[in-house]
């Protein structure tokens, strides 16, 4: 870790830089910043704030009690580490983290010092059995499509979207279904993530190398399903008709 300490007026700003070296096919599950707070006279409680240097985005803010001896603390820095690893946008380049320690009693910058910063990154390795000689990035096509969004997933996945026909102008004639889950696709498409086809994979790699040559792939439906519609015959209101409308329900999403 590289540590830089700068002063702005009377305020002390500390910046931390942790180079990442994760394999491209690994996914970051969780990341924490651990460091030791060293007590000082006059501060019983401090607020520790962490910012992402690239865009000054707040990452984490927590209040800690200061005892008589050194204390290990832990802060959640998953979001910036994920963005660094995926290189999603230009403003998410890994420029490090900014650390501020404020006194809860005065509201000013605290004189509490710290030591031994450690970045812990928990990741999931790709579990693909690769054929001898097959390029790793090509095998990512065989992982299967990501479907339903789960938890706080921000990558490309399928979201629910309920359609109620009677609320849509021009669709009041439909008897059944009264509503259905049409779904939609939304989320980030970092390089190599769930490409819909080989072209999308190549486009994502070119975008990673030079963003002027190609746009980043977008999250879009990769598998759609039909929907049966029951409605009154327009020529004879006493009769019912059934029609099959194609590509009405999103089943799976991918980056393309």
TrEMBL record:
Q: Which family does it belong to?
A: Belongs to the TGF-beta family.
Q: Which GO terms describe its molecular function?
A: cytokine activity; growth factor activity
Q: What Gene Ontology cellular-component terms does the record carry?
A: extracellular space
Q: What is this protein called?
A: TGF-beta family profile domain-containing protein
Keyword annotations for this protein? Disulfide bond, Growth factor, Secreted
Top-level taxon of the source organism: Eukaryota
Q: Which CDD domains does the entry mention?
A: TGF_beta_maverick (cd13755)
The protein's location, in the record's own words, is: Secreted
